[in-house]
Amino acid sequence: MKAASWMASISLQALFLTGLVLAPTYSWAEAKDQIAQTGDRQAVGPLHVPSPDWRDQIIYFVMTDRFDDGDTSNNDQGFGEYDPTQRGRFSGGDLKGVQKRLDYIQGLGATAVWVTPPVENQWLDPATGYGGYHGYWASNLKKVDRHLGDLKDYQSLSRALHGRGMYLVQDIVLNHMGNFFNYSTDFDPADPVKSYRPFTNSVPMQAPTQYPFSLNDPRRAEDRAAGIYHWTPDIQDLSVRQQELNYQLSGLDDLNTENARVRRALRESYAHWIKAAGVDAFRVDTIFYVPPELMTDFLYSKDKQAPGITHVAARTGRDNFHVFGEGFGMDKRFDDRVARRINEYLQGPNGEVRTPGMINFPLYGTALDVFARGRPPAELAWRIDTMMALHPRPHLMPTFLDNHDVDRFLSGGTETGLRQGLLMLMTLPGIPVIYYGTEQGFTAQRAAMFAQGWGSGGRDHFDTNSPLYRYIAGLTHLRRSNTVLSRGTPKILAGEAAGAGTLAYMMQDGLERFLIAINTADHEVLADNLDIGAAPGTVLQGLWAMTGQAPLLVVGENQRLTTRLPAHSGFVWRVTKAPPLPVKPGAIAVTLAPLSREPITTPSLIVRGQAAPSARLKIVLDGNLAAAVAVTADAEGRWDAALSTAAMTDETITHRLTAYDEARGQASPAETFKVRPNWRLATQVSDPAGDDTGPPGAAYHYPTDPSFAAPTMDLRGLRALTAGGALKLEIDMGAISQVWSPQNGFDHLALTGYIQVPDQTKAGARVMPLQRGVLPDDMSWHYRFRIHGWSNALFSHDGASPTNEGAKSGPAPSIQVDKEAKRITLTFPAAAFGNLDTLDGAKLYLTTWDYDAAYRSLEPAAGAYIFGGATSASDPKIMDAIGPIVIGGSK
């Protein structure tokens, strides 16, 4: 980046005369020096400590079983539950392993550690064949699971954290226990005995070991009368609130939280961990599955025998015990329904506090779209504004880019995108959460950090010199050194609406103001006319840059800041309080003639304006300096230019145009317009019903879990429409499932498409990564998309192999789902395929399967979450397919 050329007139002497002191960009070296200074902190501290200001904390989230193994003697309890070669079994991580790595965690800049539920679990679930290694299948809420250690180990971890000035966050569950019984869908609500099915082969216990949760058999009069559980089957439709609250989530036995006896038992159970283990905060799992009123009781009950959690915590000196809930759900772009639902758990109808915080899933969803999928930053700008206006305590809402329930960012996004997302987390309100392994570039959702654990690749991953570890440590140092970043209020200054590009916002706290600017595009952009509310000549001091140094910036004569942002960059500046520098008076202002308010339907747009005579200008469309049109004003300062609109394919997008006089550091006020593209039907094919049984000659079967139901993977037809180099695919399905309330509008379906672009000079790939197949009919692919309920990734063929998906590319398509019509529509902008003029002659091969952190397993016999019908270990993971078809041709 470089400042405008008039900056050259500012002398070094002038900077000294103003009294301005420039601090260097925050770096790994500074963060490492701070880490070294904390090395002499005592390893053992008190069990109980006062609460911190949670706005300033940074949380490191570990899945304990997958983090580190500090005691190998507790790994195998002899029930077949321990098997590090299997993703769904115990790997051996424990509480001692977490304590062993506190230097590593603190060195990253984290101030708190969040552990998955340490309570005694059901070790093997016979219904699914998976294990409770993760901690969410409780059998006793007051005991430490033997695989993780014992109470003394937990207390030791707590003391070690407190001795370092750090805090302990425990994951808890209020909604359910393990999977010890189930019902068929023909159950009778009036007769809990009918259709009741206990799992007598559950390992190692057949029922919870803690009273009253052990009262789980309605065939016994005492259990039935106690009403500890909802005697219900699995959730079939999450859109039905009664099912969400009272039915079983994935077979997990649903607690009757309306029952006062259950509520008291939950308060007593989790109060135990505050008193006995010194826990400082709770994260509440699956909070949408319990009524919001439960949180009022759980936190604030005045029951003398079993008081609410806040009262218990206060008795240990924790007057600010933090509790935040997991409301899993992402809003679609420019929609806030999930965010408003989150508010129901944050406050009651009269504004009273229910839960102090909620995990900010809507921000995560939009950040993922922008930083991993190439969506316009305007969507994220809107989300930031909305969260600040809507939520009562946004500073107490944990923010994240990775966790154990969603795909890793790097499974579909680039490292550059991850770095930009992390910069956003560390410079916005909210409590940043770093999921273990993100700092080591993990792509697998629950892989182990230690060599002996599942998915580790046979080596430890605690490298404090890894690039991402160093990058995050520098960012946490920046945040912790400047409370404006944790306590301030953001003001959006720019958000590119047409595609990847500029996101700029100011963080303000009193007189302290920081400017954050990010360019998500792969080209240089112009960030023009940023209103930072400062006088002409105000200096902005560079504090942080993703690469290199952040340059000095000075506010222009028009009280606006205009600068250039390199491709894939990110910067942080402080607005200094030094007296403004003298600013050279500008010449004739650059102007742009008003544009039509009606959508443009022609392939080109003529624009005109005024500037200084003979001025050389760049006409910048949607911030893209790389594609700017160069013009020179005539002797009277008049200029005009023709701009192509061929690549503009979304009529909902508002495009932005400005004229930039680089020599004078001026940009005209922007003009906006919309384009109405001309979509044409290029190809239409149908596909037989009921052929979702694998490749020709195969007899594949859907997984047996009730949430899977044919024909969700049955393709019925496809229409391909083009507008220049843009592509719209209208895909007809046998059915649309939304049982898990998926972000993208459909689940139990992964659409994987392979596209060969018309340019035959480009060599493609034939392999179908991770699907164990090769494209038919000698087709090769240049671009590949993988889309399911929670992911939307586009790849190029570079580096593709049977185990490598290729190079991350973008932008990914927009997704629209019409459940009634059973139609999924994917719209790819021309930029997705290299901005070709036409797609005529391109080829497409489309397949279906299902995906959960990886393409689901295919075995000879189907299981709860396993496809059946394999005859060999190399059978392709394809349930149904269309193609290859020619875009603009025939099948």
TrEMBL record:
EC number assigned by the record: 3.2.1.1
EC class of the enzyme, as a word: hydrolase
One annotated GO molecular function: alpha-amylase activity
Cofactor (UniProt): Ca(2+)
Keyword annotations: Glycosidase, Hydrolase, Metal-binding, Signal
Region annotated Disordered, chain positions: 71-92
Listed name of the protein: Alpha-amylase
InterPro entries named among the record's database cross-references: GH, GH13_cat_dom, Glucodextran_C
Superkingdom of this protein's organism: Bacteria
